[in-house]
Task: structure prediction
Amino acid sequence: MQLSERERTRRLIQGARPALEVQNLNHSYGRKAALSDVSFTIEPGRFTALLGPNGAGKTTLFGLLTRLLALQTGRIRIEGVEITAGAAALAPLGLVFQQPTLDLDLSVRQNLTYFAALRGLSRAEAKARIADELTRLDMAERAREPVRALNGGHRRRVELARALLHQPSILLLDEPTVGLDVEARGRICRHVHALARERGIAVLWSTHLIDEVWPDDDLVVLGAGAVLAKGRAGDIVAETGADDLAGAFTRLTGVETAGAPTLNAREGMA
Amino acid sequence: MSAYVRAGLGIVHRELLRFVQQRGRFIAALVRPLVWLIVFAAGFRAVLGVAIQPPYQTYITYDVYIVPGLIGMIQLFNGMQSSLSMVYDREMGSMRVLMTTPLPRAFLLSAKLMAGVIVSIVQVYAFLAIAALFGITFRWEGYVAVFPALVLSGMMLGAVGMFLSSTVRQLENFAGVMNFVIFPSFFLSSALYPLWRMRESSVILWQISSANPFTHAVELVRFALYGQADWMAAGIVAAVLAVFLALGLWGYDPSKSLRLRGRGAD
Result:
């Protein structure tokens, strides 16, 4: 694996510090507990899957990690900075939300230019990076089109390009493949795995689809608001004594795996 | 250029792009006051005489009287439109992108508010240009002096809208709220008739109208158009702006946890 000069320097400075640390997180809506004592870390250059059935607390966790929800108890540190320190703590994050967040009436480029301005990029930097990211995702030809004209898979690619514009060191994706067909899911999943591997980005990928988890990925299994298992995906399968991740998931959560069409078995663990 | 300036300009640019692309909104924003100016004012001109009162130094016709009120109308509708756009952005998710920008939330929301005000000022000057074609003109100092008044009154009306948008969960509910705000604000104010006229018919309505912040926004604009400052109106508008801005920021505080609750949070 060839790391860029920038990435090598960043890792030297960071040392062994995790990219993201979550400690003893609890969150409730009134009397209803959504998260109970959730702790895990994600490391630079690693793809960490946050796997849990619907209602496990994944979106609440994303709300807390992005400051859309206020922390009740527990700690979150982003590259060593407490999330309660202020909005600036979010600077290293690239985000893809479960819900589409593009402005449908604006073009792809206008959407990305707006985001680049929010992240303080100069006009020249923004132009160059937008061209780069769209080219990487095979969307350069669509830059002038209104987002409304794109299909779901292409919109997701634009959201991913947007999340990478400011060169984040951590990428958080909340169920980014919801509503996409198998081909589009596979493409995005492979691209994000490659981002972790090649650019050294720490990825937290939330999903309820087990075939998006690869054997070498780090895995956090969430069920009913609590962490049920964490470690390498392959190790978790072995520890539960199941034949595959689907079996391990069912043993851990008591929930049968989702019946979505599966990705290429060479990559996923289904 | 600092991150704040770039982000602020980005927010304003996006709002202007959205405005330009919604031509229907621009046309509606101009047609509404022009209908009042050309149709209603012509009809009422014969019925309503306007006595000499500050800032006027002579008798004026009714169409001249209602121009500041119609400017207020443009800003009132625009303030509500901006807040509708905030509810829309929240429903469509783009508010999340704004709220997760690593800059203070108060700055981001204020910038969004200011962007809406700039859009409203573009509309007001377009309206003043058309009014001039119908012979309603002001001295050039008036066109300059009205700018800061428009910023202040636009911010106040936008802040009211922002607070309302923070309390309304769904787009569908917002139309009702707008009706409850826009119509009483507009009709119970000095926009269409001088307050002394209203006092003659109902003291209670006069008292309500005198207390209506929209009345003070209209008077601020009216005096500014004649190159004068109505400091009391400016003070009241600024105070109401401060209160509703604080309420709006409180409404968008994540500790209220309203943004995710009931919207797919698991």
About this structure: Chain A has eight helices and ten strands. Chain A has a mean pLDDT of 88.
